[in-house]
Design brief:
6-stranded mixed β-sheet; mainly beta; globular
């Protein structure tokens, strides 16, 4: 009989090796950060009116999540409100952690009243500004906050170290209850009322009613310093222009990816996008001058939009006393000059300036060879009104929104669970069209029949598929810019243009050298955008317009990415506390 000692020794060495690996991995991959998010109602007063809103920890905007690249984040979410809730960590890659992604009925059933769920994910290969928000119905109107991912320790920014970093988060405010608003709109088939105000860090600012003057965000700065402003557009339905009076900004990052720095007086930022800018303050004190930071809508669609302007104050600190001690009567108020609301020319020029660093330190890994090509039309459409009902869409119809004329129907159970447990029957079908079923002059005269189809359809991709996707705006109901967001991936924006995409001529102009790498991109009004990505993240990944009204109307779909062959290419089983439907 052989001696047990060699086996014991081998076992001991194995334990030591595993322990050493664990210690090394723990040291190499960062620390674990714990957060507790209590979803609770809070009375908040804006525009001279108090209302009860859904918040995290009673804060509006919600608390910051701060982590370093390589850290693991655990967020214990407890739901104390009457609504079902989920949270999404917008832009976090969620590599093999799709159960933590958050969109309701896509990767999880919602957290019901009185229930809890721990979101558990590791931030891999990312650093910069992202944000978190509710991902069910319209709750993200007040349930949002910044995610700040710092580089690994002792790793500098590829731009001058700022004196101070400040999150600037744009939001949208309605006086009415937004859950009632969207519920009624979906029943009647009409468009919901537009917002009453935009906000900067939760505050509308001095350009609204006089009682809003006190509800103004103030950024106090010192002369001759560099500030990093982390801009986040958490508004529901509006792309925004942002500018600071008499100051130039340097764009250094978009969607948590460093970009080639460029100077601008105005930033365009769509819902779902983040942009880091450097603000170099002037070398002199301005005790008698107030500089406004302002944002207003970039609107291209046929419907109504909120045409108000939110503003915050940039205030220089005096050497001896704060400039706020100067009486307002003696102050000079400088307002920025923002582009006209439908200035698509500015939007196009700005978007094309965003390019990856694409250098040895920050290389790009763009797919050069393509395995699958897709062509998706995105836009509006109509669905018939139910019998014995009067609808508010054109000619007694309901407004809807589609990708390839399919309006997505939200399932009653989560797609990711159905996929993982091979129970897709009756939940979703895998026949999402790779191209429009009916071809037409997409940006010209619409076809006579603009009725949309509907279904819970997905595209299935084998692991590591190299994908090229062209998204084409249509003029059905009206041409409009659509900010499309892809969960689970960053993609490369290789081309964009106006009119109809030409598959014979346009690909020759694609930028495969230093394209922007993003998670949200604006499909130009009356135009197209081409993106590429590698499907290297197993799971079910939502793609939708980040104008919430269009998502509600069905401008959404999902990609099912199959497991790869290796263990580190497979989606692990769901956590034990995953909510049930």
């Amino acid at each position: 009989m052989s001696s047990p000692f060699p086996r014991v020794l081998a076992f001991g060495l194995c334990v030591l090796w595993i322990f050493a690996e664990f210690v090394f991995a723990k040291h190499a991959t960062g620390i674990t950060r714990h957060y507790k998010f209590d979803i609770k109602l809070q009375n908040v007063t804006r525009l001279c009116q108090t209302k009860s809103i859904v918040t995290v920890n009673g804060q509006f905007p919600g608390p910051r999540i701060i982590a370093r690249e390589g850290d693991t984040v655990l967020v214990n979410v407890v739901n104390h409100v009457q609504y079902n809730v989920t949270l999404h960590w917008h832009g976090v890659r969620q590599l093999r952690s799709g159960w933590a992604d958050g969109p309701a009925y896509i990767t999880q059933c919602p957290i019901q009243t009185g229930q809890a769920y721990v979101y558990n994910f590791t931030i891999t290969g990312q650093r910069g500004t992202l944000f978190w928000h509710a991902h069910i119905s319209w709750l993200r109107v007040t349930v949002y906050g910044p995610i700040i991912i710092l580089p690994k320790r002792h790793v500098p920014y590829p731009f001058p170290q700022p004196y101070k970093e400040v999150p600037i988060i744009f939001g949208e405010w309605w006086k009415t209850d937004t859950e009632t608003l969207i519920s009624q709109a979906l029943q009647t088939g009409g468009a919901p009322n537009v917002s009453d105000a935009f906000t900067i860090n939760g505050l509308p600012g001095p350009l609204y009613k006089s009682c809003s003057v006190k509800d103004t965000f103030k950024l106090k700065v010192k002369p001759g310093k560099t500030y990093l402003l982390r801009l986040i557009n958490a508004a529901l339905n509006d792309e925004l222009f942002f500018s600071i009076a008499n100051h130039t900004l340097t764009v250094v990052e978009a969607d948590a990816v460093y970009v080639k720095p460029f100077k601008t007086t105005t930033v365009l930022i769509t819902p779902g996008q983040t942009t880091n800018v450097l603000l170099h303050t002037k070398h002199h004190h301005f005790p008698n001058t107030t500089f406004l930071m302002a944002a207003r809508s970039y609107a291209t669609g046929p419907g109504a939009f909120d045409n108000t302007t939110t503003a915050a104050i940039l205030q220089y600190q005096h050497r001896h006393l704060l400039s706020s001690s100067t009486t307002s009567a003696t102050k000079l108020l400088l307002k920025p000059k923002l582009p006209f609301f439908n200035n698509t020319n500015f939007a196009t020029i700005f978007s094309k300036k965003i390019r990856s660093l694409a250098n040895s330190k920050f290389p790009i890994n763009i797919p050069k060879r393509i395995d699958r090509r897709f062509f998706f039309t995105v836009g509006l459409g109509l669905t018939p009104c139910s019998k014995n009902q009067n609808c508010q869409g054109p000619n007694n119809t309901k407004l809807t929104a589609t990708i390839n004329n399919v309006s997505f129907v939200q399932p009653n159970t989560a797609l990711l669970q159905a996929h993982f447990f091979n129970q897709s029957k009756g939940v979703y079908t895998t026949d999402f069209p790779a191209n429009p079923l009916v071809k037409f002059n997409y940006t010209g005269t619409p076809p006579s029949n603009i009725m949309a189809t509907s279904g819970t359809k997905v595209v299935v991709l084998p692991f590591n598929t190299r994908v090229e996707l062209v998204m084409q705006d249509t003029s059905i109901i009206g041409a409009e810019s659509h900010p499309l967001h892809l969960h689970g991936f960053n993609f490369f924006v290789v081309g964009q243009g106006f009119g109809n995409f030409d598959p014979n001529k346009d690909p020759a102009k694609f930028n495969l050298v230093d394209p922007a790498e993003r998670n949200t991109v604006g499909v130009p009004s009356g135009g197209w955008v081409a993106i590429r990505f590698r499907a290297d993240n197993p799971g079910v990944w939502f793609m939708h317009c980040h104008l919430e009204v269009h998502t509600s109307w069905g401008l959404k779909m999902a990609w099912v990415v199959m497991d790869g062959k290796r263990p580190n290419q497979k989606l692990p089983p769901p956590p034990s506390d995953l909510p049930k439907c």
